[in-house]
Amino acid sequence: MQENNAFKRAISVLFHLSLKAKLTLSFLVILIVPLVVSNWISYKDAENTVDSQMMNSEHNSVNIVNQTIDQFISAQEQNIDYLAQAIPAADINNNENKKTREILNKIQKSSANVEQTYVGTETGSFMNEPTSFKNPPDYDPRKRPWYQDAMKANGKVIITDPYVSQSSKQMVVTIAQKTQDGQGVAAVNLRLDSITNMLSSIKVGQHGYLSLLDKNNMIISDPKEKEGTKAKGSFYKTIHSGNSGDLNVVHKGKQERLSYETNKLTGWKIIGTMYQDEVDQAVHPILTKTIIVLVISLILAGLLIFLIIRSITRPLALLMDSADKVSEGDLRAPVVIKTQDEIGQLGHAFERMRTSLIQVVSEIESKATSLAASSEELSASTNQNSKATEQITQSIQELSLGAERQSRKIDESTQSAIEMVTTIQEISESSNEVASTAINTSNVVNEGNEAVEVSVQQMQFIKNTVSELAEKLKTLGEYSANIDQIINVITEIADQTNLLALNAAIEAARAGEQGKGFAVVADEVRKLAEQSSQSTDKIREVVTAIQKETDLALQSMETGKVEVDKGIDVVNSAGESFKNIKQFVDNVTSQIQNVSAAVQEIAASTEQNVRTFEDISEISKQTSAGTQDVSATTEEQLASMEEISSSAENLSEMAEELQGIIERFKI
What we know:
- This protein is 74% helix and 10% strand.
- The chain has two domains: 49-284, PAS domain (Beta-Lactamase), CATH 3.30.450; 360-662, Methyl-accepting chemotaxis protein (Helix Hairpins).
- The radius of gyration is 69 Å and the shape is flat.
- It has 667 residues and is an alpha+beta fold.
- It is a multi-pass membrane protein.
């Protein structure tokens, strides 16, 4: 909401500025924005170009060092390969070492970077050149990492991580290879000072530098760090995990641009460091020149804008001065603008307008005098017509009032008749409703009578059904008694079977082994007899319960038959009552229908009277409306006459005012 208000205030201020201010502001915006944008784009392009050139220089320096390390290591790999092929470890073991020492000495003197050449054997023998490098008496080459790694490499050249030589106290790296006979390892220690010196001599930018790390992030060469120490900084993890790339880091409070590559032979990281301040300093002169060009362009353009705006506003000022004089009525001063552009054409048009105004004012002055005289004559005639119209209007209004009173009386009579008709219609509708209700009541009574007859029939059916059910329950009781007798017979059979099974078991026992099978059968028969006896006991209990329930049901049936007989008597009495009610309702319905017919005849006669009153009322209203129309017409005519009179007076006053206005002009 506040932003909208601020925007509206800014627009309001802009609209209230002078034309000169608006033109100046517009030209400045149109000029400054493109100039600033174009110069800013040019500056950014130049900045990117300088940045790209400096980064390319850093990349080239890193790449040169990488190639130098390749050449440095490759040359010694060839020497160590020759050494491993030319020196049999067995000769050293047999003290036949003259030729071996010559070869070692030759390789050692082949390059200033070779600090020492040597051979270690599987027996623990060791030979080196130059002999000035002494090892401790207990020195065993087989325990040294260079020996162990070379033996595991199966004839491939291995390169150790850089380390400080115990003999020379210099940073060296060992290149080793298993001898051809497989009984020892030939090795060369290379000084890295030539590499580190080269790194120190190369500058990246003015104050940037190159550094070298081994594959374990140990510092080989770095002018800002101690050699042989672990590189510190989280960005070194990124360098260690990557193969090559560029990084923007903040190290020791300074913003640095890093570029790094990985040497394929050694796994070492060559890192170029360039300070961002140097890039900014290289770009600063470009920014200064850009600002100077921008300021000069703005000054020249501002001067040109000033001249253009002045050529526009000066003629406009002359036109404004002439317009002010014309607005005050002074048409005597001519407008003189010498330019031929659009503003000059506007000045010529303004001069033609001034001349035309002089002619118009002269003509209006002559016409205003005639108009004033005519207005006075029209005003006098209008006053006479207004008085006559007022008398006619008064007479017509009195006639209209009489017609209105007559119409109101007729309307009152008509309204009373309408109310009477409404009342009679309500009585007729009520009679019809009562008759309809009586007819419905008669129908309901008929339905009730029929329902009573159906109820009697249904009660009789229930009575018959109850009687049949009682007979069936008696039969069920007899069946239950028969079942009880059958159960007694089954029980006796089970007892006899049990007794026979017992006798059979006794006889089987007497028979001994031959009667065992018979004894088993007798035992099973006995068990079956016992189960039959138990089942018959349960059946007897169920049958006894059924007999009890059957006796209770028979008693309930007898009670139901008595109650059904009573219900039949009550329903028959209700049927007689419904017949009496039906006869009474039929009589009432006939009488109500007669009353309804009489009321409808009265309503029809009253409606005819109401229509007659309405016709009379309509005629009276038409008469009243006619007089009112005539009265309105005369009133309108009177109002028109008054308006004409007022207009004539106004016209006369306007003619006088017009003469006063014309007198203000100076021709």
